[in-house]
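Late entry, written up from scratch paper. The run itself happened at the end of the previous shift, but nothing got recorded in the book at the time, so transcribing now.
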Amino acid sequence: MIYYIVYFLTKVVSWFYFPFTAFQTQKIPRQGAFILASNHISNLDPVLLGISSVRRLNFMAKIELFKGVLGFILTRLGSFPVKRGEADFGAMREALKRLKMGRVILIFVEGTRRIGNAPSKAQAGVGFLAMKSGVPIVPVYVKGTDKVMAPGTKSLKRGRVFAIFGEPFYVKDAPSYEEASQRILDKIYALA
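Output as recorded:
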């Protein structure tokens, strides 16, 4: 119930602050598990993807957010914590469990927000999940959210934002988790 209330309220707020366009949403599988793999440029990205997707998303979010009221809400929205900067096997097990249940997992492949045009490096976790689960990956490229909610701020500026969804694909034949993750990241930026 909380998910749908937040979804509706977020859609209303988006009309005023960040009108969005979601391109190629027909490429999102209507059933079955998959990994939604995205670039990450703003704290607004999970919000945009949540209202752009035709499927309910499960979010992997940094553990620091799971405190107090925000933690309660995030849990009700389908989020689960991940410890950044280390191999969090508990978060990986939870993601695999949810994928096995047919759910959709949203993952930011770079692991943290990318600021500016600095070279990015894919984190191995998404490659691990893709290869272990065998589910398709749907790449999505987010644009404009960093202008609406700049990194380091909590306020919104009015602006248009975009999400561009790509074709589902698999990375079963990658020689390593790192290589699988890099292939996924390359597919995301190819949508730019």
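The chain has a mean pLDDT of 91.
(Scratch paper discarded after transcription.)
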